[in-house]
Amino acid sequence: MDVGADMQGFDLFSWYMNIPPVSRIYFTSAFLTTTCCAVEIINPYYLYYNKELIFEGQVWRLISPFLFFGLFSVDFLFNMYFLIRHCRQLEEGDFRGKPSEFVLMIFFGIGMICLLTPFLQSHNFLGSALTFMFTYVWGRRNEDVRMSMFGIITFSAPYLPWVMLAFGFLVGNAIDMSLIGIVVGHSYYFLKYVFPVVAEIRGWKRKELLVPPRVFRYICGEELEDDHVQMVAPRENEVHEHQD
Known about the structure:
Elements: H1 3-9, H2 12-17, H3 21-38, H4 51-55, H5 74-92, H6 99-116, H7 127-141, E1 146-149, E2 153-156, H8 160-170, H9 176-202, H10 214-219, H11 222-243
Antiparallel strand pairs: 1-2
Helix pairs in contact: 3-5, 5-7, 6-9, 7-9
């Protein structure tokens, strides 16, 4: 195998630009935040989650704890790999053409994790919990995918977050944030994919609970596309009426 030729054939810019937009924005924000902290442009002290400081007006702390995964290390690379892998696969799969729904999923995860974190003893950065949420939802939506760990353990995709949790426990990492991510992921999965089926069977009026607000659709360009379709459709109907 010619490793040099493989490296020359890999176009980093093309790979980066092929990442779907929402995933690319999140990945870039996390990478740049970590880089700025590594070169001491930003002090991590101003990023960590603190509900008292949030109520005092430092509202950026609702988002910044999800952008810092620690300084460059094996743990950072581990988190970045699963973040970009499952974030991307979800956006290219279930949320293809529906970026506003994917944005809603991210904000649902951020909100739920921020609500649950105060019940823990002490946790400053929350990105790993959001990564576990992505991993859990991706696994439940790809139940037939077979995976292996180190070529030894083989399992189906829904068990991936549990395997990751067990591995983290074995190497001495805290698992409470991983558990929160799994709980939040299961909550999202139920509300997004299970509740509509139950509501349809029982004839409830409200079939969906997780509907992106109009502002999300507008920011993602979906509202503009809908308006364009509505403007074009009557003209096509008028042409057919003329022809008749």
